[in-house]
Amino acid sequence: MQQADATEKVIIGVDPGTQVMGYGVISVKGQHITLVQYGVIHLSKYTTHELKLKKIFERITQLIEEYLPDEMAIEDPFYGKNPQSMLKLGRAQGVAMAAALARDVPIVEYSPKKVKQSVTGSGAASKEQVAYMLEKILKMELSREFMDATDGIAIAICHHYHANSPAAVASSSAGGKKSKKGGWGAFVSENPSRVK
Fold first, then answer.
1. Which of 63, 62, 34 is closest to 160 using CA atoms?
2. Is 70 a catalytic residue?
3. Which residue of the set 71, 75, 109, 151 is catalytic?
4. C-alpha 36: how far from its chain's center?
5. What confidence tens digit (pLDDT) does each residue in 145-195 have?
6. Does the global pTM surpass 0.85?
7. Can you tell me the distance from the alpha carbon of 123 to that of 128, in angstroms, rounded to the nearest whole number?
């Protein structure tokens, strides 16, 4: 009997956005990945950026309370030509991260290229290629109307692959409590007085 592999880990993946934010919740037992939930948060109907940020915080908090994830994986805002869009995207990411930090959920960030590479083998893969590979990994069909949600699922799966790589497993068993170097989890554990 494999008792050690029977522990379940729940990961929420978040693809930050200011018009649409995608998310995916996966459950992992051993190497078996199950899709628990995925969807999008439509933000274009809110008139101000502040209202959008409030809605992101509320919805991510609700998802955390409902699915009790062990970890959050979130996509880094990539560098764009428009600094204003970049700033807004960074705020959206920060609010989602704050919702996780408020519930003591460790966070790890991944670049869009790293996510695509982890799921498809190519850092330049299209959204369609990512969705196709996710269907193969999860052995199920995903709704095409939730393309932004597939990014959230991909981020969660990317985190699962990296958290279970031999290097990550070795460093977590050596250090006891695992936190990604440079990640928010590490910052919070090293600076408890700076996080209120």
1. 34
2. no
3. 75
4. 14
5. 787 899 999 999 999 999 866 555 444 444 333 334 345 555 455 555 555
6. no
7. 13
Of 15, 71, 109, 151, which one is the catalytic site residue? 15
Q: What are phi and psi of 161, to 5 degrees?
A: -60, -45
- Going by C-alpha positions, the residue among 18, 67, 75 that lies closest to residue 42 is 18
Is 15 a residue of the active site? yes
91-94 contacts at long range (C-beta below 8 A, 24 or more positions apart): 91/49, 91/53, 92/16, 92/17, 92/18, 92/21, 92/52, 92/53, 92/56, 93/16
| CA pair distance 68, 79, nearest whole angstrom | 31
Task: Please tell us whether the domain made up of 4-194 is placed in CATH 3.50.30.50.
Answer: no
The two structure tokens encoding residue 174: 């050596």
Burial degree of 106 (CB within 10 A; 0-12, 13-18, 19+): buried
Write out the two tokens for 117: 């590479």
For residue 188, the model assigns a pLDDT of 53
Residue type, 37: Q
Q: Which two tokens stand for residue 101?
A: 């930090």
Please say if 5 is a catalytic residue.
no
As a residue count, the chain comes to: 196
User: Active-site residue among 65, 128, 135, 148?
Assistant: 148
